[in-house]
Amino acid sequence: MEFLKETLEILANQNILVKGIRMDKGFFDEDNFAYLEEQGIEYICKAKLTSNMKKVIKYLDDQERWQPLSNHYAAAEITLPLPKWSKARRFVFIRETQEPKVSGEQLNFDLKTFDYQVIITSSDEYNPEEVWHQYNKRCNIENKIDELKVGLGFEKMSQAELDRNIAFMWLKVLSYNILNWFRLVLLDGKDSRAEVPTIRRKILNVPGNIVGNDRYRHIKLAPNPWLQKVLKNAKEKLQEFLCTQAWVAVSSG
């Protein structure tokens, strides 16, 4: 809970008003929920699939409480206190039907299997499906964090001094923002959604040979029609971007 308190205090000192928070199951603890309730902050948190939760799922099955959301998903909700909790809280359950697996040459349609997600929330504004979608918005943030780790080694602290590590971290943040600008402004279609390792592999780290002699030495790349098209398009977009910025600067002046 100390981490949660410290984070909220830092945001408060920056005059950032926190109205709601999404948390993963690492924060699933009544002390955290009680603190947020005292602060008037709504929360949506992934719950741990404990033995108690499995008993609740069995109860929902027995009572046929599931409401279909689609061919593969169903939702249910219940308000209850967990053992040793001081009060009841709202839980949303999401059930996903798994596709039948092929065993040898036979496909078994009789035995259905399910995956479950459990979410706890203090909000009564959203129905179960909306609670689920609200929680899943945090997945995009996790994807960005994973991209920072895989693409730029954001989690690695290679320097002995704290100040140097902080400087390296900000260089990585700057690099990430430049790469974001590059793909959003200069690339088209699915290429604009490519992650950092893909951009590095397909566009930035392109193998080539140093050829020529004396003063005329240059890099020769292997024929790559796709890369030629991407770079030609990027040059045109860059020219368009620079012209637009120049027009804005002149107009603003």
TrEMBL record:
The Transposase DDE domain, residue ranges: 21-240
Coiled-coil residue spans: none
Pfam family, one: DDE_Tnp_1_4
Protein name: Transposase DDE domain-containing protein
Species of provenance: Desulforamulus reducens (strain ATCC BAA-1160 / DSM 100696 / MI-1) (Desulfotomaculum reducens)
Highest classification ranks of the organism: Bacteria, Bacillati, Bacillota, Clostridia, Eubacteriales
